Recover the amino acids of this structure.
């Protein structure tokens, strides 16, 4: 009874937040909406462009029937807008400590979690946060291991002026309400832009290192991934949290892009070496508690670099630590599932063998979760999770 009431209360709050979000998006639809998804670049092909946030409109009785847009995922991470001002970046990069506007001081109090899940998110991406909360990112015990979750956010919208400030005040109120319901929002006072993801990285590392000092492992990723937490825990079962570990989709010998037109353009004055240090793709990687503390220290001494996962590679290099490639972290290279059920990638057996899959919409995440965990799950020919050996199509 009490639980039912609580659930109903939670459901109506969710509805309320969704409605408020819809209104805010509607009000902002003429603003500079990001139009492309974060490019993978660094020598990799960019993902297909995705439409900006969809606006909800009151149906007009006289108008022609509405044409629905294709259901493509919205950008999960902030996207670069226009050419990057390196001069400004270099001048501003000594300012690297911003206050925490929304904290979760109790996240790791009491029993320390075995796994802390940290997901990069944008204020407007409430829908994906909901999908993650209610599927793979659920808090509680998974195979006996205590799992906790936080979302990492900066302040949305870069425009100044009275109107910009009013919009930010609204967002702050919404996010505070969301934090009261779910207790999983971390919001810092820097602008949530693509080139500020490095700030998100260092602020999260120092927060986790001081607020969750006894956590065994941390998974950090994007909000558009599907994580098979069971497989992840199985992979971690043989690992010692007191030893160094950072595993994921490791990229070796990536060359800085010197073409001015690229969104990933890095002038030689900013990075002079021919290749980047080995780094794990920011879509999703896992690290041990020991590495968390060492990285938090190392990253606070490395100069800011505008590409967050390369920056983390620089911190690792400082520690003389090599990221460990894991074949089941597919943060790149798998075609996105679509609503077409005949696609191979929508086969739950395919997901059963992976740890991380990238590039999913909220609906994809829901669907995959229910196919994997629902009552109608089918028997797979190869139910064992991948533990060793490279992943192969149709294996
Ligand atoms: C990062 O955030 C700060 C503080 O909000 C802002 O002044 C700066 O312009 C942002 N930097 C980039 C590269 O977006």
């Amino acid at each position: 009874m009490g639980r039912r009431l609580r659930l109903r209360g939670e459901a109506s709050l969710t509805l309320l937040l969704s409605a408020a979000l819809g209104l805010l998006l509607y009000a902002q639809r003429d603003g500079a909406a990001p139009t492309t998804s974060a490019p993978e670049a660094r020598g990799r092909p960019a993902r297909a462009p995705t439409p900006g946030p969809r606006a909800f409109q009151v149906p007009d009785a006289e108008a022609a029937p509405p044409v629905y847009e294709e259901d493509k995922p919205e950008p999960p991470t902030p996207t670069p807008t226009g050419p990057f001002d390196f001069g400004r970046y270099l001048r501003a990069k000594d300012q690297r400590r911003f206050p925490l506007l929304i904290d979760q001081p109790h996240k790791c109090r009491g029993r320390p979690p075995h796994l802390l899940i940290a997901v990069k998110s944008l204020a407007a991406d409430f829908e994906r946060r909901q999908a993650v909360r209610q599927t793979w990112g659920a808090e509680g015990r998974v195979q006996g291991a205590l799992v906790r979750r936080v979302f990492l956010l900066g302040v949305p919208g870069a425009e100044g002026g009275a109107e910009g400030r009013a919009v930010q005040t609204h967002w702050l109120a919404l996010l505070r309400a969301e934090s009261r319901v779910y207790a999983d929002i971390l919001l810092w006072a820097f602008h949530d832009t693509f080139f500020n993801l490095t700030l998100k990285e260092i602020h999260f590392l120092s927060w986790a290192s001081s607020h969750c000092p006894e956590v065994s492992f941390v998974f950090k990723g994007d909000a558009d991934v599907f994580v098979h937490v069971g497989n992840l825990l199985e992979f971690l079962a043989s690992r010692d949290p007191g030893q160094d570990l950072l595993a994921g989709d490791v990229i070796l010998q990536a060359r800085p892009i010197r073409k001015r037109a690229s969104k990933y353009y890095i002038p030689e004055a900013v990075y002079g070496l021919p290749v980047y240090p080995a780094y794990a793709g920011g879509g999703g990687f896992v690290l041990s508690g020991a590495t968390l503390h060492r990285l938090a220290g190392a990253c606070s001494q490395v100069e800011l670099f505008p590409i967050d996962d390369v920056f983390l590679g620089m911190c690792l290099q400082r520690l003389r630590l090599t990221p460990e490639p894991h074949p089941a972290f597919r943060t790149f290279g798998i075609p996105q599932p679509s609503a077409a059920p005949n696609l191979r990638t929508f086969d739950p057996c395919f997901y059963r063998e992976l740890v991380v899959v990238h590039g999913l919409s909220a609906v994809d995440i829901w669907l995959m979760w229910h196919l994997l965990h629902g009552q109608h799950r089918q028997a797979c020919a190869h139910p064992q999770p991948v533990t060793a050996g490279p992943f192969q199509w149709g294996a």
